[in-house]
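Hi R.,

Here's the chain you asked about this morning:
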Amino acid sequence: MISVSNVSKSFGKTQVIRNISFEAREGKITGFLGANGSGKTTTMRLISTVLRPDSGDIFVDGADAVRMPDAARRNLGVLFGGDVALYNRLTAWENILYFAKLQGMSDEQAEKRIRILSNLLDMDRYLFKRVAGFSRGMRQKVSFAKSIVHDPSTILLDEPSTGLDIYSIRDVQDFILTCKAQGKTVLVSTHNMHEIERLCDDLVIIADGQIIRSGTKEEILAAEGTDDVMEMFFRIAEG
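And here is the predicted structure, written out as C-alpha cells:
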C-alpha cells in the first residue's frame, strides 16, 4: 500500500505539488492521471524516494519513505517513463542479473526470477542476445524486468507503454494484471485510455499540483455521469 499525506514540493519559487493526499491500495491497480506538467512524475519520484518532499508523509507498505528511504526502496520496483537505459555490450540476461545482484539476490534466486520474467514478458527469444540493436519494445521489456527482478510488493510505473508496439503493450499489461493477482500494489501513470479501462481499479487525478479526484473507477465515472474514461478525464480537466 502507498499512503501520501499532505505532501508538498517546490523547486525554487515554483510550487509543483500542493498538499496532496491519496492512497494506492494493496492488490489493486491505481491509475494516476493528469496532463503534462500536472505533477504526476514529480509525485512518482517523491514516492520512489528520488526526491524528498518539503512537507508531508509518504509510506510504502508501512515503511517511512521520507525518514527511512532505504527501507521503503526495498519494497519498491520503479520504472520511469522513457527509462530504457541499458548496458549495450551486455545481454538482456546480464543486464537484469546485474540489477538483481545490486538488490542482494543470490545467483539461484536471480536465475529463477529472470526466467519467470522472461517467460511472462515473452523475452525468451532474445534473452541471451546483446541489447545493442534491440527495438524500443525489447529494451522497454528488459528495463521493466530489471526494475522488478527483486519481486517488490509495490510497483511504480510511469508511462509503461510508451513507444511499445501493440503486442508488447499486451504483454506488459498482462504482466501488470499478474502483479495485481499476486496481491501487489501497482501505481500506473498513463495517458493511455485503453490501459486505464483494462487495468485500473482506482483512479487519482491531478491538475496543477493538486489532487482533484480520487476513488474507484466506478465511483468517479458515476459521479461524472459517463461510462467513458476519456470523456470523464477531459470533463474534469476542463472544469
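One quick note: The radius of gyration is 18 Å.

Cheers,
M.
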